[in-house]
Design brief:
Length: 153
């Protein structure tokens, strides 16, 4: 099956998935889609690594860098590899004034585009019916015994 989406369509899908992943309760699949799509675009020479930026939210309060990737009209950040520090220029602080162009793609369309492009599929979760649920069972009550509140009752 031929995949005929343009670089711009894929970049817009990555942008949409990335935007939703930031607020999604279960975002692992969305971030995996973003990462796989960007890596595939870079290996196909359809996207390029521009340089390194200092991360806005470093882990464990240490300075951390991320790789700036240009894909279509959009810019994304991803975690650097060891060789990125050797071959990419460090651009310093993130430019807070730049914004990616607005996108009007819904999440389902974006996920479909990226999963077809990367071949990555979400893992199936166990259904609620298969999970053991604890139901409320009242304690058996003896008709002839009434619990007493104190010794004097």
């Amino acid at each position: 099956m031929a995949f005929d989406k343009t670089d711009s369509d894929i970049a817009q899908a990555i942008f949409t998935v990335n935007r939703h992943a930031k607020t999604a309760p279960d975002n692992q699949y969305l971030y995996a889609l973003k990462k796989e799509a960007l890596v595939l675009m870079i290996t196909q020479k359809r996207a390029e690594k521009i340089g390194l930026h200092f991360s806005k939210n470093p882990r464990k309060s240490q300075q951390q860098s991320s790789v700036l990737v240009k894909c279509g009209n959009y810019y994304f950040h991803m975690l650097p590899k060891k060789e990125d520090f050797e071959c990419l220029e460090h651009l310093g602080q993130l430019d807070e004034t730049y914004r990616n162009p607005p996108s009007r793609m819904n999440l389902k369309t974006a996920k479909d585009i990226l999963s077809n492009f990367t071949g990555l599929r979400p893992q199936k979760k166990e259904t609620a019916a298969s999970q053991s649920t604890k139901s409320y069972k009242p304690r058996p009550v003896d008709r002839f015994y009434t619990p007493k509140k104190s010794y004097f009752d």
